[in-house]
Amino acid sequence: QRKIIYTCLDKYCQQKIKVTELAGIVSQYTAHQHGNHSLPLTIVNMAQRFKNKINLLLPIGKFGKDAASPRYLSTILSPITRKIFPELDDPLLTYQRDDQEIEPDYYVPIIPMVLVNGSEGIGTGWSTKVPKNDPIKIVDIIKKMIYGEEPVKLIEELNHTSSMVMFDKSGNIKQYNSASEILKEF
């Protein structure tokens, strides 16, 4: 997703674009080396309204459960995406290099998108599932934490996950037992 967001924010998704065309641009622009099949599917998932609490891409075409082939679908950057990833933060980002500057090592969205849209994945010996959460509740928790208040009621609502394994802010694998642990660290 980071490669797609980087490509779209930089210049390639300001106008309606075919999903397969965007996948090709992302692959070339970010030195993507993991095959061409995963990018179109990821772009489709980022645009499907029923899969996300906040869409970073807008769907143009049949993006439903039985989505049409990516070559028939188009997308465009959602207007909210640049608000979640403010342009003012761009100079703070560190970028990966592969004979050219490619995507940032990480983004710092104004709200933790992993808690908003959730995440699910399998790695060697690990699996993780972070459920989707209401973005308004996430923002309320962040505001309370900024002002030194204890957002107990809201955090209890988010703590319905038994365990989550993901990278911490130093890039190490860490097990979190609640959404509040993730919020406190980041």
Automatic annotation (TrEMBL):
- What general EC class does the enzyme of this chain belong to? isomerase
Q: Which reaction does this enzyme catalyse, per its entry?
A: ATP-dependent breakage, passage and rejoining of double-stranded DNA
Cofactor(s) the protein needs: Mg(2+)
Q: Which residues form the active site?
A: 72 (o-(5'-phospho-dna)-tyrosine intermediate)
Example GO BP: DNA topological change
Name one cellular component (GO) term: nucleus
Q: Which GO terms describe its molecular function?
A: ATP binding; DNA binding; DNA topoisomerase type II (double strand cut, ATP-hydrolyzing) activity
Gene3D superfamilies, alphabetically? Topoisomerase II, domain 5
Ranges for domain Topo IIA-type catalytic: 1-186
Instruction: Report the EC code(s) recorded for this entry.
Output: 5.6.2.2
Protein keywords: ATP-binding, DNA-binding, Isomerase, Nucleotide-binding, Topoisomerase
Name-wise, this protein is DNA topoisomerase (ATP-hydrolyzing)
| Organism the protein comes from | Euroglyphus maynei
